[in-house]
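for the recovery benchmark. tokens below, seq after
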């Protein structure tokens, strides 16, 4: 049982750093630009397809990952200029409708370009295999690499947000966008930087997860709901809140799915416990969100309304 707990805890941390990469961009886009972007999960999917394509062309996962980054920047800039920039002055309902339409367009475009069959990305040779943790327990090297890479990105993002001029502008924009604009800052340029940064982070998450999951259309929708939960729990516009919220959501989701049925067997028969556990496990993250919002209505690190 201890080995199972440690294994699932590591799986939760690995999912948490991926959710953070997606949620960090989403919380900045919503907190600074006041744009509800339902197409943010599409960027996660596009990053996975980019790394699959470039890795197949070059024969190297590392070259595929490196080439994915400028491609992600280009996609982010194009989306901001062509679609998102036209939604700044529109209502949230208009933004939801427009970005939902963008999701459908992106999914169909992916089917046209890459087909409907899932793609696979070979795992880098240096990161294949497992490492011993405790006793007979082993954990895949690549999943540990994902955790390390996610934490490194989180650390770099923290330094940029808290110790650079662009970070100061981002924090100021999340706090009072109108004042930043009134002080002479080019708010359009700031918005383009924010959206592009969010696009690159989401694409990076998709690229990192590609070797351990199949790359297929619609893969972004499965993480988008959890990402919105992370943003709400952490507080809109807060990178620190996105990081803590991502870890909380991922660990609760992972541990609840495994240990929920096991704990219910103490009070129910095995078949009923398994069925009840499968039904209750997906609800745990929403129960967590409701509990946190009862105590902190703006999220863990959200500004006061």
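predicted aa per position
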């Amino acid at each position: 049982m201890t080995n199972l707990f440690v294994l699932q805890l590591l799986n939760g941390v690995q999912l948490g750093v991926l959710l953070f990469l997606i949620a960090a961009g989403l919380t900045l886009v919503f907190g600074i630009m006041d744009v509800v972007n339902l197409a943010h999960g599409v960027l996660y999917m596009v990053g996975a397809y980019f790394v699959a394509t470039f890795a197949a062309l070059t024969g190297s996962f590392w070259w595929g990952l490196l080439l994915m980054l400028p491609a992600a920047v280009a996609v982010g800039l194009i989306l901001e200029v062509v679609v998102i920039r036209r939604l700044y002055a529109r209502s949230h309902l208009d933004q939801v409708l427009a970005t939902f339409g963008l999701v459908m367009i992106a999914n169909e475009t992916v089917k046209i370009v890459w087909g409907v069959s899932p793609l696979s990305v070979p795992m880098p040779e240096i990161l294949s295999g497992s490492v011993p943790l405790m006793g007979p327990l082993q954990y895949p090297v690549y999943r540990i690499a994902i955790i390390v890479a996610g934490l490194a990105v989180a650390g770099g993002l923290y330094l940029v947000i808290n110790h650079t001029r662009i970070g100061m502008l981002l924090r100021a924009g999340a706090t009072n966008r109108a004042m930043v604009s009134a002080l002479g800052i080019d708010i359009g340029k700031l918005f383009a930087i924010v959206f592009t940064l969010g696009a690159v982070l989401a694409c990076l998450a998709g690229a990192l997860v590609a070797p351990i999951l199949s790359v297929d259309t619609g893969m972004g929708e499965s993480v988008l709901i959890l990402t919105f939960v992370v943003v709400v729990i952490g507080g809109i516009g807060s990178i620190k809140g996105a990081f803590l919220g991502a870890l909380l959501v991922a660990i609760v989701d992972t541990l609840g799915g495994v240990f929920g049925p096991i704990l219910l067997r103490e009070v129910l028969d095995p078949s009923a416990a398994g069925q009840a556990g499968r039904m209750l496990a997906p609800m745990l993250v929403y129960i967590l969100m409701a509990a946190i919002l009862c105590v902190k209505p703006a999220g863990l690190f959200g500004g006061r309304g």
